[in-house]
Automatic annotation (TrEMBL):
Keywords, ordered alphabetically: Cytoplasm, Nucleus, Signalosome
Listed PANTHER family: COP9 SIGNALOSOME COMPLEX SUBUNIT 8
Cellular component aspect of the GO annotation: COP9 signalosome; cytoplasm
Record-level GO BP terms: COP9 signalosome assembly; protein deneddylation
Source organism of the structure: Aspergillus leporis
Phylogenetic placement of the source organism: Eukaryota, Fungi, Dikarya, Ascomycota, Pezizomycotina
Descriptive protein name: COP9 signalosome
Ranges where the CSN8/PSMD8/EIF3K domain occurs: 48-194
Location of this chain's protein in the cell: Cytoplasm; Nucleus
Length: 216
């Protein structure tokens, strides 16, 4: 079935109706050729194209397609990529994710300006990135200092180093143990749940109910 024409309203509809990050990605993938045509036609579609490519970029990250995200950024109209603040943020985020600069990833997600339509997806990616990183760290370490663990998750490292119960509980809640004597956290490997993708996106869908207030 043919999709409705690409528009800001349709983009908002796709975000709200997609049941998983994979479904979102696949739908946006079908719109890429139309976005390309809009960019070639000499029309004032800068805002729409910015939102489309930014959303498509985040959908790559939500489905853990980092290599594909790098390739996709090469297909964005260069004039748009070089001048649009949202797409510049996406490129900055990609570099930080690629280089595994964890603290910088959280700073970019939390502090850079993102369009209202895109912000729920950005917040969902922060949750995804945290949970993915937590799983990776849980398999990589037998023991880790609280401050180092906090840095991986974008938490308050100083509070963690002081043994702040609110921070330590973030880790013990997933099965890690906290040794008061050595002041070390002992990770427990966290298995990947097959329902993870759908559950994370259910959280996003709940947030996206607010988008209608901002969408055009």
């Amino acid at each position: 079935m043919d999709l409705p024409p690409l528009s800001k309203h349709q983009l908002s509809t796709v975000l709200k109706s997609s049941r998983s990050p994979t479904e979102l990605y696949n739908t946006l993938l079908e719109y890429e050729s139309e976005a390309c045509r809009l960019s070639i036609a000499d029309r004032n579609e800068t805002e729409l194209l910015s939102l489309f490519y930014s959303t498509f970029f985040i959908s790559h990250l939500l489905t853990d397609q980092i290599y594909e995200a790098r390739a996709m950024t090469q297909r964005i109209p260069q004039a748009l990529a070089q001048n649009d603040p949202s797409l510049q943020n996406c490129l900055t985020l990609l570099r930080a994710v690629w280089q595994r600069k964890y603290e910088l990833v959280y700073k970019i997600l939390r502090e850079l300006p993102w369009p209202e339509l895109l912000r729920p997806a950005v917040e969902s990616y922060e949750t995804y990135f945290q949970e993915k990183t937590l799983r990776e760290v849980s398999h990589a370490y037998e023991a880790i200092r609280p401050a180092a663990a906090a840095d991986y998750l974008g938490l308050n490292a100083a509070a963690a180093e002081q043994g702040d119960p609110a921070v330590i509980q973030k880790f013990t809640a997933v099965g890690w143990t906290w040794d008061e004597t050595t002041r070390l956290l002992h990770p427990k490997p966290i298995p990947t749940s097959p329902e993870k993708d759908a559950r994370l996106y259910n959280e996003l869908s709940q947030i996206m109910a607010l988008v209608g207030k901002h969408g055009g």
